[in-house]
From TrEMBL:
InterPro entries: Chemotax_Me-accpt_rcpt (IPR004090), HAMP_dom (IPR003660), MCPsignal_dom (IPR004089). GO terms for cellular component: membrane. PANTHER family: METHYL-ACCEPTING CHEMOTAXIS PROTEIN CTPL, METHYL-ACCEPTING CHEMOTAXIS PROTEIN MCPB. Pfam families: HAMP (PF00672), MCPsignal (PF00015). It is a multi-pass membrane protein. This is Methyl-accepting chemotaxis protein. Belongs to the methyl-accepting chemotaxis (MCP) protein family.
Length: 614
């Protein structure tokens, strides 16, 4: 790429604009990163100071909570001391001067521990520590004193309660005064010798309690003083950190302001330089493009002899564009000359093609007529095959109906055979019952014979009784009457048994006739059953024959369906062939028309190419 100092090309100027813009953006990016780093550092320092301040505030809050904690919880106090000491040591490792605060914390915890120890020695109630010992002495004194001393002892108890509750100098003086009043009153009563030791013990225990309370009050006062000192030192350190935090925030704001000004100034400078370079490129490219457009407009009007001015020494993109346009016009001139020659040849060939297509269109019409006749014949065959398929389907339906009727006839015969079987079973049952009835009638004959025997014996006994009554004379007349009655009954019994035998004989004769009729009916039933079995077999064979007929009808219907499908396929194919032939004929006509249009266009092309100057 050639580039001179005073005549740079379009691409070099555009590249210079891009380089300047990229350098400007790089400078802006560097300034932005630098400003961002400065802001991050300032913000990090401010966050660090704010964290220190928060840590110390939390430390102060926890220390203030020490006074509200349970005074007997030494383990919690020691845990708090270790936790806060570790917290302060972390701050010290980060550069905060916390040595004095750590010492004050240790002293505060020590004093608070001493307060807890003194409280333990004093006692949490009336059962432990010095309070418990004093309460025992008072109870022992109360058990040994007289009843008139009770009011003074009650005053001592009240003073002791106020002492434990208030723990101030006034309550201590009140308690000591109540002990002295008790001693004086007992002395006035003249019982001091008896109760001196007990009063001294109560006074000694009370003095020990008072001493512990005073010591605890002194340590608590020292603890409060130490706490105030610790809190004051913590507040001073917090104020120091707060002032440093305010300074850090001010520094961060100043850094942000400087960075914003630097970025804005660099952006304005980059924008000005880029604008100047872009304006120069725009002016140069506008002049060159104007000349190029004028030349292209002339070329568009048909002046292919037009050429663009090209600076071969500068050789920039616009110069290469001019060279390309000049080469294009030269090639277009050559192409137009060849187009004129080709148009003449095309006009001649189109005329020959038109004659050939006329003959092809005539032959396509004849082929279309023959194909239509074949398609009509195939369609008639297809309709005949469809009629055959319908007839086969109707035959198949009739065969199915006959098969169903055969099935129903077989079912009827089967039911009739079942009924005959039931009738034969009934005949067998009746025959058995008649046989049993004959056996029963035979047993009745035996019974009647036995009755006849008994009647004859009774008649003989009556006759003998009548003879004996006759012998007895008048005394046996009544017995003779009875014997006559018995004989008469015996004769009636014989007559009755004779009638029964006659009836049984008639029944047996009728039963024989019935048995013969039953045997004849059973034989006829057996014959009917045999005929029914034969009929069922014939119906089964008929059903099998109808099944075969139905299967063959199915096969015939399937064959007819295949023939119909084949005929339909042939008809469809012939329709497609007919459509193809018609399409070919139509396309031949279109080609003939196109050939005429080609001749017309060739004439137009020759007219248009004549407008150009090559």
């Amino acid at each position: 790429m050639q580039m001179t100092l005073f005549n740079p090309g379009f691409r070099q100027r555009l590249l210079l604009v891009v380089i300047v813009t990229l350098v400007g953006f790089a400078v802006l990016g560097g300034l932005s990163v630098s400003a961002l780093n400065s802001q991050v550092d300032a913000a990090g320092h401010a966050d660090e100071l704010s964290g220190w301040q928060n840590e110390l505030n939390l430390f102060k809050i926890d220390i203030l909570a020490v006074a509200a904690r349970d005074r007997n919880d030494r383990a919690a106090l020691e845990s708090l001391r270790q936790e806060k000491r570790a917290q302060l040591e972390r701050l010290g490792a980060e550069g905060v001067d916390v040595g004095a605060i750590i010492d004050l914390l240790d002293e505060l915890v020590r004093l608070q521990t001493e307060v807890i120890d003194l409280g333990s020695r004093i006692g949490d109630g009336n059962q432990t520590g010095a309070r418990g010992a004093l309460n025992e002495q008072i109870q022992a004194f109360e058990a040994a004193m007289f009843s008139n001393m009770r009011p003074w002892l009650e005053d001592v108890k009240k003073a002791l309660a106020q002492l434990v509750e208030r723990r101030d100098p006034e309550s201590i003086k009140g308690y000591e005064a109540s002990i002295q009043v008790l001693r004086d009153k007992i002395t006035e009563l003249g019982f001091i010798d008896a109760f001196a030791d007990r009063i001294d013990q109560v006074a000694a225990s009370g003095g020990q309690l008072v001493k512990l309370l005073r010591d605890q009050a002194a340590v608590q006062h020292q603890t409060r003083s130490e706490l105030e000192t610790l809190l004051s030192s913590t507040d001073m350190l917090i104020q120091l950190i707060d002032s440093r935090l305010q300074q850090a925030r001010a520094d961060a704001a100043a850094t942000t302001s400087r960075a914003s000004f630097s970025i804005l100034a660099a952006a304005v400078a980059v924008a000005l330089v880029s604008a100047v370079l872009l304006l120069s490129v725009w002016r140069s490219s506008t002049r060159t493009l104007s000349r190029t457009v004028e030349s292209l407009e002339k070329i568009a009007k048909g002046d292919l002899q037009q050429r663009l001015d090209v600076d071969t020494q500068r050789n920039d993109d616009f110069d290469r564009l001019g060279l390309a346009v000049n080469g294009l016009t030269e090639q277009l001139g050559g192409v137009l000359n060849r187009v004129v020659s080709s148009s003449h040849r095309l006009q001649s060939m189109s005329s020959e093609l038109s004659g050939t297509l006329e003959q092809l269109v005539a032959e396509s019409g004849h082929t279309e007529d023959e194909t239509g006749s074949v398609a009509a014949a195939v369609e008639q065959i297809s309709m005949t095959v469809r009629d055959m398929a319908l007839a086969s389907e109707e035959t198949n339906n009739l065969a199915l109906g006959a098969h169903e009727a055969t099935e129903k006839g077989g079912a009827v015969i089967t039911d009739a055979l079942g009924s005959l079987e039931q009738l034969a079973a009934i005949f067998d049952q009746v025959h058995r019952e008649l046989d049993e009835l004959g056996v029963a009638s035979s047993r009745v004959d035996g019974v009647t014979e036995m009755i006849n025997g008994l009647a004859e014996q009774t008649n003989l006994l009556a006759l003998n009784a009548a003879i004996e009554a006759a012998r007895a004379g008048e005394a046996g007349r009544g017995f003779s009457v009875v014997a006559d009655e018995v004989r008469a009954l015996a004769e009636k019994t014989v007559n009755a048994t004779a009638s029964i035998n006659k009836i049984i004989g008639e029944m047996q004769a009728q039963m024989k006739h019935i048995l013969e009729a039953m045997r004849d009916g059973q034989g006829r039933v057996d014959g009917s059953r045999s005929l029914g079995d034969n009929a069922a077999g014939e119906m089964s064979r008929i059903r099998d024959l109808f099944t075969q007929v139905r299967d063959r009808n199915h096969q015939q219907a399937a064959s007819i369906e295949e023939i119909s499908a084949t005929a339909q396929s042939i008809a469809t194919s012939m329709s497609g062939v007919l459509d193809t032939v018609r399409g070919n004929a139509e396309r031949s006509r279109e080609i003939r028309n196109f050939s005429g249009q080609v001749v017309s266009h060739s004439d137009e092309l020759l007219g248009m190419t004549g407008q150009f100057r090559c």
